[in-house]
Structures are given as C-alpha cells and as structure tokens.
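Memo subject: From amino acid sequence to discrete backbone structure tokens
Action wanted: Derive the backbone structure tokens from the amino acid sequence.
How to read it: Take the token row as a discrete description of the fold.
Attached in line: The record itself begins immediately under this heading.
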Amino acid sequence: MDKFRMMFQFLQSNQESFMNGICGIMALASAQMYSAFEFSCPCMPEYNYIYGIGLLIIPSIWFFLLGFVLNNNVSVLAEEWKRPTGKRIKDPTILRYMFCSITQRSLIAPAVWVSVTLMDGKSFLCAFSINLDIDKFGNYSLMTGMSEVEKMKLLARIPCKDLFEHHEIRVAASRYIKCISQACGWMFLLMMTFAAFLIRAIRPCFTQAAFLKTKYWSHYIDIERKMFDETCKEHAKSFAKVCIHQYFENISGEMRSFHNHHSSNDDTDKEEEDKRSDEEKLLGIRAQEDMNKVLWNWHTCKPALALRKDEMNGEYKGILNGEANGAANGFVKGHTPAVEKREWAVYYSKV
C-alpha cells in the first residue's frame, strides 16, 4: 500500500509525466478495444455507410473528449478563463498555451483509433462496398438483368460472408477496398507525423522568451491551485481539531482535568505542542464568516503577482537590495514602498 501511495504522490508531483502516461494508456486502450470489438456490418445499402463512417469517427470523438475529462488542467483552464480580473490580469497567451497542450495530448488516442481502423479496413469495406464496380472482379454476367436497387443490395452484402454467395468475387473486392483503406491509413499517419514535425521544428523559430513565459506561468497557475487546495485542507483539519478540542473542554472540563492529573508530563507537553501547532496553522482565521470571506476574495480578487520584501537582515536592507537588484529579480521600482531617508551625523574625537 505504501508503494502505491508513493507512486501516486510521484505522479501528482510530476503532472506532465502523469498526463503523458494517461495518454499512453488511452492509446493502448483504444487499440485493445478495437481488437476486442466485434465488427458486424448491417449489409444494407441505407445503413452500411453510416455504420462504417460512424465506427471511424464516433469513437475518435469519444476518446478526444475523454482525454479532456481525464486532464486535470481543464478545470484550471476554465477557472482561469472565467475568473474575475481583480488585481491579476488574465493573459490570453497562457490560456492558449494551456488549451493547445491539453488538445495535443487528447489527440493521441483518437489518432491511434483512426489508424488502427483504417489499417484493418473493415469499416472502410462496409462503408464503400456499394460504390464498387463489380465487373472489374470477373463474372460479368452476375449483375445482368438486375435493377439498380437489386445491384445496391447485392454490393451491400459483400462485407458479410454468409450473405454473399460468390466467394471469389467477395475476396477480390474485400482485398481491393482494404488496400485503399490501408493506403489512407498510412497517409493519415504520414500527415500526423509531418504535422508534429512542423510543430517541433517551427516552434524554435519564434521568440523563445515568449514561449518560456507562457510555459512558466501555466505551471505557476497549476502549482498555485494545488498549494491553495493543500493549505485549505490543512486549515480545515486544524480548524476541526481545535473546534472539537474546545467543545470537549467546555462540555467535560472535570473529566479533562482528571485525565491531565493522571497523565505524565511528557504527554501533557506533547498535547500542548500539538495544540500550539494547530493554532498556528489557523493563520488567524478562527470564524466561519472570516473563512468564507477569504475564499470569496481568493476567487474574485487574487493577489497581484508582485512580491514585496520589506526587511532582509536588517530594517531597510531588504528594500535597498530590492532597488539595487530590481532588474535581476524581476521587480519594478514601484513594488517596494518608499523609505524615508534619515540624516546621520558623525563626530570624530581627537583624543
């Protein structure tokens, strides 16, 4: 159990590796689902095309949407898009980067499904068997004297072994359509690979600073949300512990004094330390109305991304360092409050 917990914590800390693993599992699942899927063409002119193309497209859309559902960054993207501006400006480039990253990962499983389906050729045969010119495969007298409706019904039965009597014609027609389907599958793989190559090759041609900026702040938004959730959990745990502790103190004071009298000093000191640590974790928020106000303010007006450091190793050393190293630290001069200058007088003694 500890090994699974450590693995889960590792995957949570490495969000990108976790999502890549999810995409790989979905790709394998799509291929496995197709191999386990029982293909049964209706062999009817009015339903063959719908069934064949639907088998190619609908599962792909389902895998694409499932990729969005399993990606945790979707909620982060939606929250960042819909939140009020407040003190923090919303950058559309960051939202676009997050959306493109989610979309790229979600396209892996649908691409695998389409590739496997086209390589197999059954859905392609079911969809386009009615468009065949059966005279190309021999036995020219087979369709003589038939009406157009009868010809369509006969061609629609080619994917079905039990319904089409002429075995040689069915095998030849099946191989012909499957060959075209596999050619389309290889063209699809070539196009997807070429598109991925272009994305990889063209990206360095643009400004890397803008790309690094969007990547950094997208990671920051994800990490900030996780840390806020963890802080809320810790605060809720400490709040509940202190509240229950105070409840039992008020209700059963005599019982508590009796237990404290018989317990050892080490246990008492440990309880006091735990109580102080829980009090510190409350961060001064000790009422339900105050916590609701904090959560509301976090949603409506997140703090600005400009950190202040007024003191460092002295009363004004931090401010002086902030002004001197403003360019290196990424802070502008206006982010630190102005410090009132003092006059100093130095006296020298000749004694």
Remarks:
- The chain is about 70% helix and 0% strand.
- The first helix runs from residue 2 to 13.
